[in-house]
Design brief:
The protein is globular, with a radius of gyration of 16 Å. By secondary structure, it is of the alpha/beta class. Strands 1-8-5-2 form a four-stranded parallel beta sheet, with helices on both faces. It has a two-stranded antiparallel sheet with strand order 3-4. Helix 1 packs across helix 2.
Length: 143
């Protein structure tokens, strides 16, 4: 298992590095419950001068992540996300905590955020970094 410093260093690297296409890297941090994974992520984010948005993945239904807005006149559907920061100028870390406790559909949405940097067809803010946090399987912490 990584030390808290190693964990913090990984998050710091994640929030200061982008992929070749310019989108931010994502980070999956796993460890036993109660060791401060979320606190470390929050502290690193603050030290980097970034905002921190924390949510528990399993506590939200699929409609919280995205829902359709139908324009009948134009015959179009636009997907809206009311849960996450979507201001294009927002700069920070979106912490998707308790990832291991989410069901498969919720995990699929979280992974789309982490891997594709978007939800549905709507991109995350350019400087939004996704950090997934989870307990390890061997800890039998409900995940």
């Amino acid at each position: 298992m990584a030390t808290p410093k190693q964990f913090a260093d990984c998050i710091r690297l994640c929030v200061n590095t982008n992929r070749q296409d310019g989108t931010p890297f994502a980070f999956l941090g796993k460890g036993p419950p109660g060791i401060g994974k979320t606190s470390i992520a929050r502290q690193v984010t603050a030290k980097e001068g970034m905002k921190f948005f924390d949510t528990r993945v399993f506590m939200h239904g699929l409609e919280d992540w995205k829902f359709p807005i139908v324009d009948q006149a134009q015959k179009t559907i636009d997907w809206i996300c009311s849960l996450l920061p979507m201001d294009p100028n927002w700069r920070g870390v979106i912490c998707l905590d308790e990832f291991d406790k989410a069901n498969r559909d919720q995990q699929a949405i979280a992974l789309q955020l982490a891997l594709d940097h978007k939800i549905g067809g709507r991109p995350l803010p350019r400087d939004a970094h996704v950090v997934l946090l989870a307990n390890r399987l061997e800890d039998m912490a409900g995940g």
